[in-house]
ABC transporter substrate-binding protein (Aquibacillus rhizosphaerae), 348 residues
Amino acid sequence: MKKWFHLFVLAIISVIVLAVCGTEDVSEENSGSDTSEENNGSGDESDTGTEIFTIGASQIVEHPSLDAAYEGFKEAIADAGLDVEYDLQSAQGDPINTGPIAQNFVADDVDLIFANSTPSAQGALQETKDIPIIFTSVTDAVGADLVSAMDQPGDNITGVVDLHPDAIKNTVTFIDTYFEGAKVGLIYNSGEANSVTQIDAVNAAIKGTSLSTVERTVATSADVQQAATTLVGDADVIYIVTDNTVVSALESVIGVADEQDIPLIVGEPDSLQKGGFATYGIDYHTIGYRAGERAVEVLTGEKTTADIPVEIPPAMQLFINKGAAEEQGIEWNEEWDDIAQFLETVEE
């Protein structure tokens, strides 16, 4: 009897010991699961272990050309299969705001800064010499003191400019050929380095032609309509370069050009689709995409910014908007059918 009693007691003890051990195993498993979730939530890696990059994107203002460049930039990075989180910040047309935007990117320790305009690039470079900067929508990278030479990028900055070397010269030749003797009205923000560079190039290209220029400067987009209005009677043609301030208020210039039958020459196809007549332009989505490809090389460690020369746009084309030509009272020249690509006004 005692023997059976002892066996019974031993069985009970065994069951209790097994139960306790099982509980400890479950506790250890749950503890390991919590640690894993905390590690996955660090922000450096995705749930699949893929590295996540953070890119701070600085843009001087919202307008179609810059927006297209930003979309092209993101598309190139997506095509490369990188996992990226973006922080897009607009300076709302005020270069002073580019500094604080860059300061925040530095404080957040982003992996790369995409600077989408000359002021954005200047503001970023002022704030960091360590975080790599890839720019585009910059007209003169050397003149803006971003790099010392096109083939000598900075230690932490390089990119793709938005001005083809022949764009202004070809535009002036077009005006001189089809609007001989015209007084060309120029509206620009003298505070934008890229605009001053282009205006200087226009004036240089006009020397020796039948053309002359009439200039109006603005400080903000609110000044653009008044500047355009004062060109009426003084200008036979209006030529708007890729000035961010003026392009952001281009509708004001288009309204004057249409009402007063003044041909409006613009600096890029997006402005043409808003109502400009003609441009020797480049595609901003394309230069944004190319900038994105350069960013991929930097993020993956394949190259540093110092290894990547500043690039020019790969191609340039004469674009004409037939509808705008009619609105601005321009007599159609059949030669344009053979030399131009045609775009239509896109209603927003």
Observations:
- The first helix runs from residue 2 to 40.
- The mean pLDDT is 88.
- The domain at 52-162+284-307 is CATH 3.40.50.2300 (Rossmann fold).
- The chain is about 45% helix and 20% strand.
